[in-house]
Amino acid sequence: MLNSNQAVLSYLELIISSPGMDPRTKKYAQKAASHIRACAVLIDNVKRMTAARRGDLVTGGGLDLTKAMRVAADKVTQILPDRRVEFRFHPSHDETIVLGGGIVPDVLLNLLINIIQLDQGDDVILKVEVTPVREHGVACWRLAISDERLPLNQALAEGISGEGWTQDRSRIVKMTGLVFAKLMAENIGGSLTLGQCSGGKGSTYVLMLKGGESE
Amino acid sequence: MSTVMIVDDEMFIVELYRDILQLRGYTVVGTAFDGEEAVRRYSASPEKPDVILMDHRMPVMNGVEATREIIRMNPKQKVIFVSADVLVEREAREAGAAEFLPKPFRMDDLLEKIEKIAPP
After folding, report:
1. Between chain A and chain B, how many beta carbons pairs sit less than 8 Å apart?
2. Per residue in B17-48, pLDDT tens?
3. pLDDT averaged over chain A?
4. Which single residue of A57, A96, A163, B113 could bond A65 by disulfide (Cβ 3.0 to 4.6 Å)?
5. ipTM for the complex?
6. Do A9 and B16 touch (CB under 8 A)?
7. Is A11's CB within 8 Å of B16's CB?
8. Is B111 near chain A, with CB under 8 Å?
């Protein structure tokens, strides 16, 4: 299945790079390529979730959360080239090491893909903050990704935070990337929640991860 | 003109590589559909390719074993290992692969890795 995706994606890239293509066709081809790339991420998610269920998921050691977030930001713009996304980073510390280095990059990528897909605007502006916190006496890093223009989807927020997540299967199917991000975060002792931005407008995804040491 | 050998058990992936490479001025000098066939063809060929694109999961002999055999025959041979399984990267590099490309890849990423080793 991944090989088929690879072939479709590469041929679309060949079409997109062909000289003289009219802008509308190019835009449609870019949208198609975005869907294929997002689909490839979902296939990868299923493989990882299966590994997690078997108990043989490699969670990895320490990783700098802010650096990983910058890498994920670059990657998501490659996956969704038809969307204009601006990231506004507000780093608080030089080093923000968390546990779960083998999983965190995929968690971040899935989060970003879903956040961007939920915002239907032409330009998406995401504010990114990483701050140290203590949760139940444990040192953690709190990553907040805010889209101040996207109103909070209350059903989605309740779904991520509460029981509704497992009861409404249609929601699970639609937001598999968020399901993956939540389950993987929990797998390494962290959490994912969705709430309102501090200013009262927009949505903020909060990923809480246990602090670690750099390798 | 730089030359490439393609090793992959999926015929349509071999064709995909061929289409991309020929468009960028590379010559595909050989194909193989499993690791054993790759080793056999490589060994029999008097002209070695500049680059080998090597898949991992193939019948008979996988990409890591095939890479190891080829590098044993010619330690200077450049192999670009392509796999959806990123966990195999360390094994592939230990076997002698010069580069690792995770699937699904962007066409530009593939070409960048090849051009780094052998310009068209």
Report:
1. 37
2. 999 999 889 999 999 999 999 999 999 999 99
3. 83
4. A96
5. 0.77
6. no
7. yes
8. no
